[in-house]
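To the wet lab folks,

You asked to see what we're planning to order before we commit. Fair enough. Below is the target structure as tokens, and below that is the sequence we designed to fit it. If anything looks off to you, flag it before the synthesis order goes out.
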């Protein structure tokens, strides 16, 4: 399977482990990535709050570059990037005059042909096509599947999964042996792009997510968005200060969980790049990072008093 890939800024910087795990898993599943040539920033969560034409022009140029390269389906791993590209494509296809205007701004032919896919849509193709058969080390853990805001909203544009109780990530987790919990914070906001400017808000919002996952017995939170990972992992210190307790529950990208189940090496999946160590209470398999790095591992989600 050959798919276009828009890595975006995060996968080359703060979320390198996401890129590493995606490429490692793709090799196992027979996915050949074709990176968008000469891609640019999509504007993420900032451009559309400042200038509408700019917010459309940045993703439009990416779509034009993909189209020029002959890419028919474009995978966009970052949820924020996925949202911007999918919404831009929808707006431009619905308004011919606007599409011509944006094409003039970027000085490129623009027909918006490439279909935009998120990472769950890509992996879902394998859940019905033998993903379970490829599993070598079932990920036998209780997981909280966290979709965040961007993967399912706005539904009238994305038409992806259920808005309040999406199931695609849950099904992928079941296919690799995990046990998804039933919880109320699947699509609640983590604070998104306020991670730097309003860390206090991120601590409050993300704190609710982490706390609920722990209280419901999850051993890991699984995400498909670099921004969500930053807020739940990198901002753990701010979360703990706000909540007045400590949490050791790790946050994994869905590609990392799939990679572990496929038997891939921890290093290849970027497990060492996490702020919150990926440590579980009991080892799954010898050599897996989940075994506690040779030390007696405390139960995931336990407080310091429980250690």
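Sequence we intend to order:
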């Amino acid at each position: 399977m050959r798919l276009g890939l828009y890595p975006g800024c995060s996968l080359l910087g703060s979320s390198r482990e996401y890129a590493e795990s995606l490429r490692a898993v793709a090799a196992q599943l027979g996915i050949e990535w074709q990176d968008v040539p000469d891609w640019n920033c999509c504007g993420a969560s900032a451009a559309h709050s400042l200038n509408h034409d700019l917010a459309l022009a940045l993703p439009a140029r990416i779509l034009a570059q993909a189209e020029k390269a002959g890419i028919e389906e474009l995978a966009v791993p970052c949820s924020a990037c996925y949202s911007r590209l999918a919404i831009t494509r929808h707006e431009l296809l619905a308004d011919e005059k606007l599409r011509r205007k944006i094409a003039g701004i970027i000085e490129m032919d623009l027909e918006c042909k490439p279909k935009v896919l998120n990472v769950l849509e890509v992996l879902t193709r394998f859940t019905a096509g033998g993903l379970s058969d490829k599993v070598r080390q079932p990920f036998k853990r209780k997981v909280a599947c966290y979709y965040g805001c961007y993967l399912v909203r706005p539904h009238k544009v994305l038409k992806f999964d259920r808005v309040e109780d999406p199931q695609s990530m849950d099904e992928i987790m079941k296919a690799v042996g995990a046990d998804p919990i039933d919880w109320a914070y699947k699509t609640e906001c983590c604070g998104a792009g306020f991670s730097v400017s309003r860390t206090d808000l991120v601590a409050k919002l993300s704190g609710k997510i982490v706390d609920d996952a722990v209280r419901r017995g999850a051993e890991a939170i699984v995400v498909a968005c670099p921004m969500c990972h930053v807020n739940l992992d990198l901002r753990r210190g701010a979360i703990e200060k706000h909540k007045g307790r400590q949490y050791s529950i790790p946050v994994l990208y869905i590609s990392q969980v799939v990679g572990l189940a496929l038997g891939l090496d921890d290093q290849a999946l970027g497990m060492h790049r996490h702020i919150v160590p990926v440590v579980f209470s009991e080892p799954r398999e010898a050599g897996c990072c989940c075994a506690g790095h040779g030390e007696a591992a405390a139960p995931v989600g336990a407080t310091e008093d429980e250690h």
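Structural context that might help your review: The longest helix spans residues 52-68. The chain has twelve helices and eight strands.

Thanks,
Computational group
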